[in-house]
Amino acid sequence: MSDGQQRDFEEEYADLGATTQNAMDIAETSMDIVRQFVPDETLADRVRQKSVHSMGDIEFQHLLEFTGSDDRGDDEDAPVRAGARAVLDEATIVTDITMSKAGITGRGHNCEKRKAIGNGAELAEETGMTRTAASVLELDKQGVYDGAIATIGNAPTAAFALADCIENGTRPAVIVATPVGFVKAEESRQRIREVSEEYDVPAITNVGRRGGSGLAAALTNELIHVAKDVRTDDLELESTAEARAAQSAGEDGEDE
């Protein structure tokens, strides 16, 4: 990528959802308000902030779970580090349904975006399983989920199917799973957490009945945003929370 293309790439990505100055001002003001209520110390905090912004609920920050590990350990930043690395490596982003895919930005990365739904129709018809579960199993047969960013925002059965695939050896780079609903949604996320811990697959999930495609897309977008900050040298992905806090304090001191 040339210097000119790099500048265009970064300028285009000035903000995840905004393209005009007025919209960017609104977005930044909104996040400033969120940061008054949500810590801003760790990479996981950035994801918590995005969840609060997406859901319009300050308390939602306490419902997120960070599980699994990467090569630096099993701290709560591990799924964020893994997700950002996957974005930088241009991994495929695989969503469960169209809505989740539509909510993930097309800017700031070169990852292919795919949706599971629409695959596995024959399997669904033969077995009676849901179309989303069959779709996940069909894509897994093709090796799509290995090394991918797996985003599930709607279908609990997709989360259950992906968990089964992980038990059988599939290894996504990271999972973002926030399926919503009253029937098996909470249980499906618990299942993802269980395989995440057992097989060291980094995952971001939430507890309770809430969630949805908008939330899943927003959390995936934050992984993209973290990767962008790494690419532009605004963030050292491997540094500790303490080191980032010290750097931030030093920058604040320079401004005084």
Write the SSE topology:
Elements: H1 3-12, H2 21-35, H3 43-55, E1 64-67, H4 78-88, E2 93-95, H5 98-103, E3 113-115, H6 121-127, H7 131-141, E4 149-152, H8 156-167, E5 174-177, H9 185-199, E6 203-206, H10 213-231, H11 241-255
Parallel strand pairs: 2-3, 2-4, 4-5, 5-6
Antiparallel strand pairs: 1-6
Helix pairs in contact: 2-3, 3-10, 4-10, 6-7, 7-8, 8-9
Task: Describe, in plain words, how this protein is organized in 3D.
By secondary structure, the chain is of the alpha/beta class. It contains eleven helices and six strands. Strands 1-6-5-4-2-3 form a six-stranded mixed beta sheet, with helices on both faces. β4, α8 and β5 (174-177) form a beta-alpha-beta unit. α3 packs antiparallel against α10, α4 (78-88) crosses α10 and α8 (156-167) packs parallel to α9 (185-199). The chain is globular.
Weakly predicted, low-confidence segments: 7-15
Query: Class by helix and strand content?
Result: alpha/beta
| Average predicted confidence as pLDDT | 87
Helix content: 40-55%
How many helical elements?
A: 11
Q: Please state the CA-atom Rg, rounded to the nearest Å.
A: 18 Å
State the major sheet.
Answer: 6 strands, mixed
Please tally the β strands and state the result: 6
Strand order, sheet with most strands = 1-6-5-4-2-3
Shape estimate = globular
Report how far apart the termini are.
Answer: 37 Å
- H/E element sequence: HHHEHEHEHHEHEHEHH
Q: What percent of residues are in strands?
A: 5-15%
